Amino acid sequence: MTAHQSRQLLLAPRETATSFVSRLAASNWIDAGTFAIDKATSFQRIIDGLADAFEPMAELGDMVPEGILDWSPIKLDGKRRSLHGHIFPSKVILGSQMRGCPMCLRDAAATSAGPAHTAMAMKGHWLVPHVTLCLLHNHPLVPLWRDPTPYTRFDSAIHLAAIWDDLMSGHLDSEVREPTDFDFWVDARLSGVEDGGWLGAHALHASARFCLLLGSALLRLEDIRTSWVGRSNDWALYQMGYEVARHGEVAIRETLMRIQQLPGTPQDGARKIFPVLYDGLAYDHRDDETFEPFRRILREHMLETWPLGPGDELLGEPVMQRRLHSVRTAAQATGVDQRRLRKMLAAAGIVPEAAQGVADAWEIFEAAEAQPLLDDLTALVPAKEFAELIGASRSQFDLLVQDGILKPALDAPGVKAVWNPADGRALLDSLLAGAVPLHQAQHGWEHLSKSAQRLKMGPGLIIAAIREGRITRVANHADFEGYAAIYVDHDEVSRILGAVAPAGQSIELFAKSVGLLPPSRLRRLILAGFASATMLRNPRTKADQLYITEEDAVAFHRVFLTSRTMAKELGRSWQSLGAELRAKGVQPFSPDGGDYGQLYLRSDVAAALQ
């Protein structure tokens, strides 16, 4: 190709570098990869947005348009890309599906004297999933092609030539719609227009994603299930969330309160009260710091309005102790009927006498301040009622009594034994403190009583091992309450209490126990020589494999802290510790650039928090 030919193609507004190079290649009847090689460069480096990838082209006399990378995703590291000044996770904007506006593509082809596929340009903002509408034509962005391989996916001219007939026939067209305020807002942010509003102070990707998550939760106000709303309607969810979030934190908190005032109780779990929103902030984006402002709002809202206690979770982390009681949780802890207890609490000035539209499950008060009164009100109950209070079947209750885990408060000759609900609550708290949330009993999770039954032992042995810290893999099943919700990792129980297990934990089990997930991170740490493991024979497979022995575990804890072990040691939430470490410049352990998750050197943490 001559320099004259390259000048015939102009960089289209917002066009990506890969689109421009692909059009150049197509004008010479070759693919982009071959074209780049002929120009002593690499198409992969162009995909990565590296400026020096164009230097060989310029040296060969080809004109490289000014600003060719302005609307291209520029590689920052393995997980992030920068697009027009905004940072996105690579997987978000480099997905296998390419979208675009068919009307824009037809317009480009119609105004060109050359072949259509050398005139149609792919635009950078089309890569952003939060952009759902072309503001030039009010036409939704539609899927154009899917290709799992980036090297061929971004050779757009070839793909556009293949779908040219569908573009011209209107087969890819959709119904136009009026732009929403969110559509204008996200386009302005991408364009670099200053946003003086509350959302403008936060990262674009996190802000836009939060609007979608909040919009999904708001469907509850319309009595619409999230499963009923397809991806084609995401634009409406973005707008619903934006209408609230644009007004700032107070408006968001008021909306969260409106949502939780709908039918449902804290016992249903936050993921049911705030569908999509809770899981998004608690799990999907938990490692992305740009979402922290939104996590903080939900976290503080729940801390102030939810009666959370041991066995509950707060944004994916187990609650260690109770701060707030509700009338319902206090009734469970004391064995007093909810209606009677409310009157007693009202007489003491702790809660309003009348419900005033607030259900007992949501009527909260400070647990510590009310504890003396609750102690006085606690009523001894018969065995059947006690078993129901702690969520145990009668047979499970009998086994706990048989093993000496539960003892009656009064058991005199000739008097029917009665039980103190506070003892039951204390048992549950001791087992659920630090328990991980469990939504499906897979991968070896068993109910505590079932695990004991399989090993032909009483539950007391497992409970004693949990209290002594020898068994650490304890979970709280979201579908149950009380004792019925307590699950253990049967493999760990077998290893600790069984007779055939090796003297060590598997890498997967140890990684789960310290919260270093996925376990592949711990394996990489070991293979890199930063942590020790011992080769032992697996008693089931008879194969040699790496295990974490007690000595290996001690060595690990001597050097490292994870978010979970740090929170447990220091008695603080992992969120507050993480925020303080970031503020003091402490970064996760990554000496070779490897991803070992939220893993810190103990010495760094000690120096920062002293």
Explain what this protein looks like in three dimensions.
The protein is built from 32 helices and 20 strands. It is α+β, with helices and mostly antiparallel strands and 610 residues long. A hairpin with an 8-residue loop joins strand 14 (474-477) and strand 15 (486-489). The strands form 8 sheets. The protein has a 4-stranded mixed β-sheet with strand order 12-14-15-13. Among the domains are: 3-169, no CATH class; 181-306, no CATH class; 505-610, no CATH class.
General form: globular
- Number of helical stretches of at least 4 residues: 32
Pick out the low-confidence regions: 1-7
Number of strands: 20
The major pleated sheet works out as: 4 strands, mixed
Question: Which terms would index this structure?
Answer:
610 residues; alpha+beta; 3-stranded antiparallel β-sheet; 32 helices
